[in-house]
Amino acid sequence: MERFKEKVVVVTGGCRGIGKAIVEGFLREGAFVYAWDYKIPEPGEAFIDNESMGQRVSVVQVDVSSADSVNLASQKVLEERGKVDILVNNAGITRDNLILRMSENEWDAVLNTNLKGAFLCTKALVRAMMNQRWGRIVNISSIVGEIGNAGQSNYSASKAGLIGFTKSLAKELASRNILVNAIAPGYVRTAMTDKLTAEQKELFLKNIPLRREAEPEDIAKVVLFLASDDASYITGQVINVDGGLVM
Amino acid sequence: MADIKQKVTEIVVRKLGVEETQVTESANFIKDLGADSLDTVELIMEFENEFGITIEDSEAEKIQTVGDVINFLKEKVGE
Q1: CB count in 10 Å sphere of residue A195
Q2: Cα distance from A127 to chain B (closest Cα, Å)?
């Protein structure tokens, strides 16, 4: 299938974990993809092995919490490709701590990357989507934005914030045929969840009806669906991709 | 003045897809020219770019008709 031939896609946090799976998914289906990430592969380190796919990806070092960095990278997209069709706000970090121990820095770092980052990237790219009367924005939230998680008040606040952001944007932009949805992944096998304690992992798995953790590809498939023409009547929704953990 | 009016008319025709004859000074962007709230924001941004000025939100709120824009720009950028 080549659902995204001729489409230009920006994926933040696109070099690792869920973001990389999303980048690969779009590349497989013909898109040109900008993978933005704070930490990009070393020069000479292959990001995408496949040669034809490698020609359609541009890896750019971006700090999504900085307006200057985001605006510069956005200009590059629009100058090089002349348009942007799909934005996936995926960049996210954790600085877990119980509230009593959480520093202001830990709070700010998570909110600035996860929530303000989505605002800055959207603001920088949405005008181009408005002008062409076609756009898709997919925000990667989390089930903890819906149900909370002890030790993640900053992270869950940022992910809940993304849900409100998604719904407001969906209403603002519907008249321009820009659809905005969020995905709330559950427990996904990535470097981020490797940091959870064995206790936390066990607790999560015990409560997942499908009895397994998600692979990044499980999330990417739903991002691609929401960005495709198959989802042209879906906007303002939060789709949980969590093996049934939250229902 | 004629120059400002001409530029404003061009922008409004291009952004809203209306006929030049509809763009009279008394024409209200929303009621007469079919603009929605996003269109009005986009128009303000176009005027800012075209004339190299900044239009504050409090000023933008007062701009409802084509004549409002022309008068505003006349004061802001001069003849």
Answers
A1: 10
A2: 9
